Amino acid sequence: MAITPLSVEDIFDRLKRGKRWDFPGGVHPAEHKTLSNQSEIARVKLADKLYIPLKQHIGVEGELQVSVGQKVLKGQPLTHSAHPFAVPVHASTSGTVVDIAPQVAAHPSGLSELSVVIEPDGIDQWIDLKPLSNYQEMDKAQVVEAICDAGISGLGGAGFPSHIKAQPGKNVEFLVINGVECEPYITSDDRLMREHAWQIRQGIDVLVHLLAPRHVIIAVEDNKPEALDALSVACRDASNYLVCDVATKYPAGGEKQLVQVLTGREVPGQGLPIDVGVIMYNVGTCFAIADAIFSGKPLVERVVTLTGGALNKPHNVWAPLGTPVEHLLSVAEYQPGKQASPRVIMGGPMMGFTVTDARVPVVKITNCLLVPSVDEVRNDNAEQPCIRCSACADACPASLLPQQLYWHSKAAELDKAQDYNLFDCIECGACAYVCPSEIPLVQYYRQAKADIRNQRDEKDKAERAKRRFEARKARLEAEQQAREEKHRKAAEARKQAMQNKDTDKSARVSDAIARAKAKKQQTENVTEPVAETQPKNAAVAAAIARAKAKRAAQTDAEKKPEATVQPSPAHNHESDNDDAESAAQRKQRQIAAAVARAKAKKQQGQDVNKTTPAQHKSDEAGNNEQQSEQDIQRQAESKQQRIAAAVARAKAKKANRQQAQNTSDSDDVTEEKNSQS
Amino acid sequence: MSALNKTLQIRTSPHLTAGYSVDHIMRHVAWALLPTCGFAVFIFGLAALITLIVASLTCVLTEHVLCKQSGKISSVNDYSALVTGLLYGLTLPPGLPVWMVMVGAIIAIALGKFMFGGLGCNIFNPALVGRAFLQAAFPSAMTSWGPAMASERFSSVPSSLLAWPFQAPDYSSWADGVSSATPLALMKFEQQLTQHADLLSGMTTGSYGETCGVLILAGGTYLAIRKMLNWRIPLAIFVSAGTLSAICHYVSPELYPGAIFTLFSGGLMLGAVFMATDMVASPMTSKGVIVYGVLIGVLIVIIRNWGGLPEGVMYAILLANAASPHIDALTQPKVFGSQSKASSEGPE
Fold it and tell me: Given A620, B26, B67, B216, which residue has the most CB atoms within 10 angstroms?
């Protein structure tokens, strides 16, 4: 079907004339609504403990604001977050926080979620409430923030944070208020509409103020005439509000299905209703918004239908969020004898899940607890072969081919399942409901969807790892290039230095010799037998001392600060000695020679360990050393000196390499950590 | 209340079921076949009764034995083998030797159904596979039709029925000693039209269950109302076969029969209502079943009018069965909300 050419006004007129569109497929399960919708929504006495999960909506959980032992008031926020997809949760009553720990969650998996456990004090005292009764004069952002702060997320089932939908950033043609409640057994919205139509209307007014839609459609299934009447009365004076009855067919309350029924527009496969100009809110959400704006009350309780053949007193209750299932069951007088084995369904019989623990709490999306007697629901898992009867395809509201999806999901042919549009499945369960072979079709689809998501995650992870690897490779290459460049420049500098030396040779030569001598003796301790160097010591030392004296005289002023900066102990030694020499030399060359000898001897005696830390200096220091030693090599007179210089150079290089390796290793480690986090 | 813990049942949604089951559907198909079976016994007597019982029992037993052999749980409780047996029996010519009936029934279940993987996996209608085998193996026996409404049909059985295996059947006990001609054969080989009144009332010869179109239609209507039969398939067959034969008849009235004759003669009615609608072997998509039905209708008329055989329902359905996966692939429904799919689809 092509996009309907009807204008917004045409559509609204058509609705006024009582005409509706239809969506494909759908089923008509027995309703069982009268079981629970005959009496008013009742108040229940508080449970002994309330278990409030920090995350009750789609999105992220907020930051914890309370600690164990703290007294909290009713409506006090337990979490806070600046994240746009986070809504806070609140204390459902006043009392004491007795525990903050993972508790079994209201989720089919039965996994635990971090929850705040509150022991009620029985006073049920509210925090200071701050209503925004004059919301129409306020900034829209402020109203939206108030809705967010009240912790309101879609009460219809999906739990989408309501404040996000309140800022669509697009032109809203229809605001649809969903009171369809198409699942059998559930009557919480039905009772709410009957009893609190006016407050729902107030909530709608707030939304109209925020969204400025062209028209408002309030849709209720035609099996709820009382609710239709109540809302019609409440919305009588608003000309662009239209209360519409919708033919009873499951899943007419599905968001995309309802948009189709009311406007004839198909929401794109992976899109949202706003893509066709529609925003949809559940009636319960409207009620909660009115509470938040006009009373300042955050969302701390909701209507829950307690129903099913195994309850003596099926009815609707106002359940504080966090109330454990077992407490509500005792309120409704649970009769275990009417069940083959205990089975409690949270949500409706078509899409609800069985709770895994009696302590599972009521959360914001909990609209029903169904406790069926043994003959009300399917009991055995007698899956038979598919006979290709195509009843599933006829029932599918998304016009999918459930049977093909089933084959491919079962065979784990995930790409083929996606070819058959697996992700357009809304998991309404109509296919499995009609399946004569009692194949749990939806479960196969969920499995396949989870597998596909996992595969995507894996792929993303691999992609990230690849990017990381390539970035690292590029970085190492760049470093390599930088090193080579540095070496090239150093070589050039050396060349330059050599040319300069030719002019002022003697002083530099002796200077170099002196330093080389010291170095050599230092390193010889490690590498060469002492005996080899010993005989020449005396003769050379005298020359060195002379040269040193000369040089010291020239560079005294510069040498001093340098010496104080030098960090390594070996260097300190050297420069200390140098200082001593420079102070003495002018008068007594003999003394200087003696000092030089003494120094040589002393350094000879120095242990191996002393030299090693000297090698572990920073890159630059190493390079300087290297450079000076190369100078020496060119000027060297004796073989031993050359050997010593070579050894020292090798050592310095090795030290350099090690250092480089160490740093790159540690880089890897940090990178690894980053990627893991 | 603490008893609630630990023993809680975990089930996946939906928790409700429409209440149909495979055996439920199959039982209803069997019931819908009962009037046709009754009429077969009425006009062909004990021979029909014996054939139907033998065919059904052989099918059920074969299924049971094969399941046990392959270590599966016996699937005879789903009644699908019974339905196959009944349908198969109804397509056989009166007086067919019992041993041939048994051989065909074994072939139907073993080759037509079990070899493909059992219920839900067969490509062809098993009953027709069995019949096709007999047609190929025993062509003369399969085209020898015992007379309808024989006077001694309730007191004795034709001698051919009890022929020994691999012996030439003895047709001497039949009323005039030779096989009768079906309306289709009369039309094909002698250009002799059968009266419409006889066709509609089923007072002609032919296979056990194919003569009375009205009763077959009644059974089909019952199933269609109960949504256990896809009415689009027979309707598409009727419309396409009727239209095509009407056109042929209009062009050359002496050579080709009209629409009513085409629809109510031979196995068309039985085939269209009970064979072509076999859920397993027919397409899934709502457009696909129309294509499938039209294909069958056209093939029937082509084979009947221009083929060498007087009857073509069996082959038409088997051919369409083979085509149905491809028909499915070509007639994918438009997924809800997919009109702007091309633009909204991500890179994945």
Answer: B216
